[in-house]
């Protein structure tokens, strides 16, 4: 018998209204006034379509029930003052006019960057016209490949959009503009490379659906993904693996795709997805680029397959497509890690219908489609395999396709 301390560790999930009320009370204690409101934006998992966003491809993320909350109120001095429960002792204070590349450093870049980019894009408003006090609390695991960074920038921009009266969040087109502002905040201020999938998931998903995002033009479609009706669950395994080299590897893969597109005489690899793959590969002069192109082209095809299956209500049948995606990412794109491979392999052996790494790779999280009544057992097997391999115990959560960011209080 296993000791209770050796059981799989599940991330807690509390009612968002309760968390928001507590955060508002905490804000009042620290700041001395009640916040005007509390806004939420979720983390995400990408069901399929990995490393295709920067190739103008298709991806299929869904919002998690876990989210980042921002309690906020305006201030008159053009400054941003922010605290986070996940960064105790690291408050942020900056004049919005001073926000720029690497300024402020660290987590403040996501928050201040989002507000500054909204002000830059809003007609008739300057950076001296608005200030914000913000208190952050999140139950999205930070740095696990579940997009806590976009949950942070997107919850902040929803607060600022509401408080400023820009009102972009009230329709999907406006939300697309908020996505662009958050992408700029992450790329230019926090200086984190990001292609836009995370921000689109946080701001444009709807409950019960995955979001088909066309990265060529930013268009989205809602694809029904009803796990409960099919007695299924989507298990997320945060491997807690360090991914210190991921920045350089990401840049390297991205540069490889750009070189392949140049070699093929197209603007992006999206333009060759409908051509016969063998012919495309034969046209490449550099053999080292072939596996990269094979992954990108086949992965976009797999996104289309999963969308067709989901629309036909054949949810169980997406399992083998998830498996194929993992093999392609592991062997052709070479962005997996031993922890991801172990989680995927063990989940499959323990009864998952399909499993794959999700996110950029080299660590982060994996997903497994499992019969609902087998989720606990699959998690226990994955936990035991990590213990046996002397790896850090993973963290688990269940992904229910959830709503995009919104005001909670
Ligand atoms: P991921 O988005 O996969 O969780 P990233 O490395 O992209 O991982 O983003 C993690 C970074 O985002 C953290 O290092 C921190 O700077 C910022 N961040 C995310 N959530 C919070 C939070 N609740 N409070 C403060 N900073 C946060
Ligand atoms: Mg991130």
Which terms summarize this structure?
409 residues, alpha+beta, Ribosomal Protein S5, domain 2, Alpha-Beta Plaits, 2 domains, six-stranded mixed β-sheet, five-stranded mixed β-sheet, 11 helices, 39% helix, 21% strand, globular, binds adenosine-5'-diphosphate, binds magnesium ion
What is the structure about, briefly put?
The protein has 409 residues and is α+β, with helices and mostly antiparallel strands.
Could you walk me through the main structural features you see in this protein, from its secondary elements to its overall organization?
The protein starts with 8 loop residues before the first strand and ends with a strand. The protein has helices at residues 16-31, 108-121, 148-164, 172-189, 197-204, 246-264, 277-283, 290-311, 319-332, 338-349, 375-388; strands at residues 9-10, 37-46, 58-59, 61-75, 79-84, 92-95, 131-138, 209-214, 219-224, 232-238, 354-358, 365-371, 395-398, 406-407. A six-stranded mixed β-sheet has the order 6-5-7-4-2-14, sandwiched between helices. The protein has a five-stranded mixed β-sheet with strand order 1-13-10-12-11. It has a three-stranded antiparallel β-sheet with strand order 3-8-9, with helices on both faces. Helix 3 (148-164) packs across helix 5. The chain is an alpha+beta fold and 409 residues long. It is globular. It has eleven helices and 14 strands. The protein folds into two domains: 9-223, Ribosomal Protein S5, domain 2 (2-Layer Sandwich); 228-399, GHMP kinase, C-terminal domain (Alpha-Beta Plaits, 2-Layer Sandwich). The model has no long low-confidence stretch (mean pLDDT 96). The longest helix has 22 residues, at 290-311.
């Amino acid at each position: 018998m296993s000791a209770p301390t050796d059981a799989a560790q599940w991330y807690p999930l509390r009612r968002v209204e309760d968390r928001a009320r507590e955060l508002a009370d905490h804000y009042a204690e620290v700041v001395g006034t009640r916040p005007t409101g509390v806004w939420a934006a979720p983390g995400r998992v990408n069901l399929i379509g990995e490393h295709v966003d920067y190739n103008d491809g298709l991806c299929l993320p869904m919002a998690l029930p876990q989210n980042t909350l921002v309690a906020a109120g305006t201030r008159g001095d053009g400054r941003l003052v922010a605290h986070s429960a996940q960064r105790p002792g690291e408050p942020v204070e900056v004049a919005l006019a001073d926000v720029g590349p690497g300024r402020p450093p660290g987590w403040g870049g996501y928050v201040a960057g989002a507000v500054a980019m909204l002000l830059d894009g809003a007609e008739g408003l300057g950076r001296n016209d608005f200030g914000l006090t913000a208190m952050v609390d999140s139950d999205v695991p930070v740095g696990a490949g579940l997009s806590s960074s976009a949950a942070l920038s997107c919850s902040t921009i929803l607060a600022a959009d509401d408080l400023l009266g820009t009102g972009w969040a009230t329709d999907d087109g406006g939300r697309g503009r908020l996505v662009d502002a958050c992408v700029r905040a992450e790329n230019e201020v926090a200086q984190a490379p990001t292609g836009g999938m995370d921000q689109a998931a946080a701001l444009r998903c709807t409950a019960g659906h995955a979001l088909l995002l066309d990265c060529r033009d930013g268009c989205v479609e809602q694809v029904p993904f009803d796990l409960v009706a099919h007695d299924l669950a989507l298990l997320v395994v945060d491997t807690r693996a360090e991914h210190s080299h991921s920045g350089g590897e990401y840049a390297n893969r991205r540069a490889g795709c750009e070189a392949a597109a140049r070699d093929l005489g197209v603007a992006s690899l999206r333009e060759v997805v409908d051509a016969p793959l063998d012919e495309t590969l034969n046209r490449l002069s550099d053999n080292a680029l072939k596996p990269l192109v094979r992954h990108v082209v086949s992965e976009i095809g797999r996104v289309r397959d999963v969308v067709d299956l989901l629309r036909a209500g054949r949810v169980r049948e997406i399992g083998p497509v998830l498996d194929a995606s993992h093999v392609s990412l592991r062997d052709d794109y070479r962005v997996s890690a031993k922890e991801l491979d172990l989680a995927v392999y063990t989940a499959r052996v323990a009864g998952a219908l399909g499993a794959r790494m999700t996110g950029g790779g080299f660590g982060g999280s994996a997903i497994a489609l499992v019969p609902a009544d087998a989720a606990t057992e699959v998690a226990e097997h994955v936990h035991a395999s990590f213990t046996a391999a002397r790896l850090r115990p993973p963290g688990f959560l269940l992904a229910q396709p959830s709503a995009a960011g919104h005001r909670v209080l």
